[in-house]
Amino acid sequence: MRVFVVSALMLVLVPLAAAQDPAASPTPTFAPAVDMPVVATDFRASLTKPLPNLDRVGVDSSQQRPLTMREALEMALANNKDIEIGRDNVAIAEFDLLGARGAYDPKLNTQTYYERIKTPAASFLSGASEAVEQSDFTGSARIEGLAPKYGGNYKVEFSSIRLTSNSQFAALNPQYPTALTFTYTQPLWRGLRFDLPRRQIEVAKKNLSITDAQFRQRAIETITNVQRAYWDLVFALRNLQVQRDAVRDARTQLEHNRRLVEQGTLAPIDIVAVETQVATFEQAEFVALEDVSRSENNLKNLIAENRQSPFWNTSLVPIDNVDLTVPVVSLPFAMTAALQNRPELQQSDLVREINQLDQRLYRDQTTPQVDLVGSYGVVGTAGTVVSTTNPFTSSNNAVRERVNELSVLNGLDPLAAPPASTLPPDLVGSYPQSLRNLFSDQFNNYRVGVTISLPLRNRTAEANLGRSLVEGNRIATQRQQLEQLIQVDVRNALQTMRSTEARLRAAATARDAAEKQYASEQRKFDTGQSTVFLVLERQTMLATARANELRAQTDLNKAIAELQRATGNALSANNVTVKVR
To answer: I need a labelling partner for 157 at 20 to 30 A (CA). Which of 52, 315, 346, 370 fits?
Structure first.
């Protein structure tokens, strides 16, 4: 093999060199011939060995199942694995959309803990002699999420504490402080009209529509494949019958020639020619039987639910009429239908719309971040009043009493006692009282402001926007390319249908002429005006003409199916309604 390649290169390269240099006169050199090994020189097929079983493998020919095209389409759409995968893809896209919408689901966070803090009394105002001990049991909850419109986000926080302390300055011990705060952030520029969660939802919707279009495309392809397989099986079964008829006619001719030999009107060698014809037709019959098995398995693979289906052991018999009505379709009408119905174009439109969503998002991300932030909160507290005296005034009591005694001795009026400090009655109570104070809105706070985030450079957003714009140009170019390919597909399908229709008429004429020629040649042979060779030749031509006519008919039926696929009308033309969801 290596020597052959080298010699071939030399044969090609040498003339090229001569063409480049007219003065050169190269002398081609050839590699030496290689002796090919002799293989099976004495092989002869056994004439006594019995033929193998010529039934179709795994098929009981006695169990015949009549099958219409409509039944085959219904079973394929119900059982075909590609269709089942398409349904699963649609369901996956639906869950993706549900997951994208989950971005707006509120989130609840809770926290509960017990805490004890002991700090040294490093100040006279610490309220304790050695250490200040404070313990609290805290519970908090927070609900936050994104607003479905205008890109805002909200947060609601609630906290509740049971606080105890050994500080002498604590007027309420234990006390129950509570707080409730609502915060809302509203984008004023970036994220106001469009943001990432809204983009994901819209993209999920488009992807769901894409899977719908892909599912319809798979349905159209499945319908077309079933139609092809159905008519291939029709041809294979009918061609098997044609070949068997040819074998029968050849054997009849053989018996006829044998009688002529016995009568002495025909040479014995002419029987050998007919026997050769019979063997040749038998070979064609066996090939046709294999084609039947292959075509039938192909159709079963499209319509059977699984490999355990009883269809695999049944002989399928197509019963639809092969003579279909050829549609009269003009090229402009076919192109218009294709541009309206082809799922590939619908998918291309959806991809372009997704790209427009990307452009919208990335263009928005190139703008500054300006947010309006507002919060409003209320607090409440309550507790048990401490029975101890006020630490600020307790040290003055003894001094005031001594001064009053001296004032009495000197005839002066005593000093008045300072007024007792009392807490508002609303603050005295337990935890429910703290909640009542909280929701009474007596103690509130609010904040309103604007936050501005202005990056000095925003190359990431600019790069994403530029990439999406280039991607849009690429999608537009691919759309033009797809439309051109669809145009080629429609033109070819329409031309194939018309050419096959004409071929069918020519094949029918050729078959009719072959039948007449064969009958005429047989009559001439019986009267001694023809030869065995001409009779066998006419017989071969007749078998070929019959097969060609049937092939042209089934090819025409497949061409009609191809035109339906090319124009996207396979579903409506076959009265098929596909329920995607």
So the answer is: 370
Q: Is residue 96's pLDDT more than 80?
A: yes
- Give the phi and the psi of residue 151 in degrees, each rounded to 5: 75, 15
Contact predicate 152/185, CB 8 Å: yes
What are the tokens at 92? 């996956």
User: What pLDDT, on a 0 to 100 scale, did the predictor assign at position 11?
Assistant: 35
Token duo for residue 404:
């009053």
> How many CA within 13 A on the CB side of residue 532?
22
Nearest-angstrom CA–CA distance, 222 and 214 = 12
Phi and psi torsions of 101, nearest 5°: -70, -20
Instruction: Provide the 8-state DSSP code for 152.
Output: -
Exposure class string for 168-206: b at 16+ Cβ within 10 A, else e: bebbbbbbbbbbbbbbebbbbebbbebbebbbbbbbbbb
Q: Return the structure tokens found at 545.
A: 């003409």
Q: Rounded to an integer, what distance in angstroms lies between the CA atom of residue 561 and that of residue 320?
A: 15
Task: Specify the higher pLDDT residue, 55 or 327.
Answer: 327
Cβ atoms within 10 Å of 514's Cβ, excluding its own: 21
CA distances (Å), origin 302, targets 74, 290, 309, 321, 545 = 11, 19, 12, 21, 31
Round to the nearest angstrom and report the end-to-end CA distance of the chain. Answer: 59
Q: Hunting for tokens 């001990």 — which residue is that?
A: 133
Residue with tokens 């039934």: 55
Lowest-confidence range among 55-59, 133-137, 250-254? Answer: 55-59
Range list of H helices, 31-80: 69-79
User: Is 581 within 8 Å of 90 (Cβ atoms)?
Assistant: yes
Tokens 């001439």 locate to 524
